[in-house]
Amino acid sequence: MTLYEKLADEIEGLIRKNVYREGDKLQSVRQASQQRGISITTVTRAYLLLESRGLVASKPQSGYFVSARAGGGAPRASELGLSHPAATSSPVDVSRLVLSTLRSICANDAVPLGSPYPDPGLFPFQKLNRYAYAAGRDETLLGLKDALPPGHPKLLRQIARRYLEKGMRVDPDEIIITVGATEAMNICLQAVARPGDVIAVESPTFYAMLHAIERMGMKAIEVPTHPEHGIDIAALAAIIASQPVAACMVMPNFQNPLGFLMPDERKRALVELAAKHGIPIIENGVYNELHFGNSHPSTLKSFDRKGLVLHCSSFSKSLTSAYRIGWALPGRYRDEVEKLKFLNTLTTPSLPQLAIAEFLERDGYDYHLRKIRKTYAQQARLMKAMVERFFPPGTKTSTPAGGYLLWVELPPRVDAMRLYRLALERGITVGPGQMFSVSDGYRNFIRLNYSTPWSGEIERAVIAVGKIAAACARRP
């Protein structure tokens, strides 16, 4: 436990025991720093953590006070503005915007608040490289047959065991290794739909799904999505009844950008709706290992009885983004997906497959995951508290249940693209909301990444973005 967490827990205990009561003022940051012999930054982080727990509230120029009500005054995630897109399919053309945004995010060492990638500092890169080096010296392990689809037997076995340990029975023969989850989603979509077909997606949705639809000349239809419960199943049912839908692409666990965990009963209902109409579901599960709760989330795949769920995932968010190793569990479409994998990239390199398989077998993957989950959960609370304190009145945020991304709704006058450009001039990146939709419904939304270790630089960047947003909100 860090020093600021210990301080926050100590103060929380005093609040629970009524030593501090509703409306009482806490020591000033400077007083607490001097009295306890700790830094001002440590005290500030502790107070922000208490604020995120709803136990205290800050008053400008006055300090921190015990909150008037449990949960604090911050808006709930369910109060985020919901987009209600028209139930019409649209051609997709977001790739140019996303590419230009990602290029600027990756350039010039900008503060990566807008990055879609996890910070690599928490990944066991050296260990994985040692396994890759050892495998590279053993010529008997590197035959072409193990690089061809479906993939290296050692990795297939480890992935199947991983699912089994989490309560989901998986046949290793169903698994297809791919070059990341992006390839898995692309070939799964290609296996179930054709150019011109209509694909149902969440609104907002992860832009990689829109890229797959755009690449294949298909159309997207956006379905309203609740920031805590996921895709609106009744709205999806109405769309299916009114027009042909070839497939549905969703991210039920820790969705990018909203961060929600879809409840099991809604997962079951979504799978049952798809089964009733014979519609395949492409499930993106790349964030499944990054849950903040004690239990691993269920998957749509676990409720599937007809082989209609094509489950896609990867190690890029939880272990290493450098190796680009993903996989698909394509159900009844398994043979077609394997053929498309072969036609698409022929092979998936054996060395990274073997390195990951060896790490999973020998090197404490669960211990690694516990560390990364704890870090992300702490930083999620801090980022949320900082945004709620330093962004303009009317700002609302999601409440991520996992992953490393925060969805932020700004006041209506704030144009996310203008905010993005102004922040970039300051050496700070944000993810503008326009990347997550084929409509124009998220002009005043941004996505923030909190995977980078918390630092003074990150704090200053968040405060700066808040000031820019406030200036944009005042602009006539």
UniProtKB/TrEMBL annotation:
The scientific name of the source species is: Achromobacter veterisilvae
Name by which UniProt lists this protein: PLP-dependent aminotransferase family protein
Transcription regulation recorded as keyword: yes
Is tRNA processing among this UniProt entry's keywords?
no
Mind giving the lineage of the organism this protein is from? Bacteria, Pseudomonadati, Pseudomonadota, Betaproteobacteria, Burkholderiales
According to its UniProt record, which protein family does this protein belong to? In the C-terminal section; belongs to the class-I pyridoxal-phosphate-dependent aminotransferase family.
Q: Which residues form the HTH gntR-type domain?
A: 1-69
> Which InterPro entries does the annotation name?
Aminotransferase_I/II_large, HTH_trans_reg/aminotransferase, PyrdxlP-dep_Trfase, PyrdxlP-dep_Trfase_major, PyrdxlP-dep_Trfase_small, Tscrpt_reg_HTH_GntR, WH-like_DNA-bd_sf, WH_DNA-bd_sf
**Keyword entries, A-Z:** Aminotransferase, DNA-binding, Pyridoxal phosphate, Transcription, Transcription regulation, Transferase
GO molecular function, a single term: transaminase activity
| Pfam families assigned | Aminotran_1_2, GntR
CDD domains xrefs: AAT_like (cd00609), WHTH_GntR (cd07377)
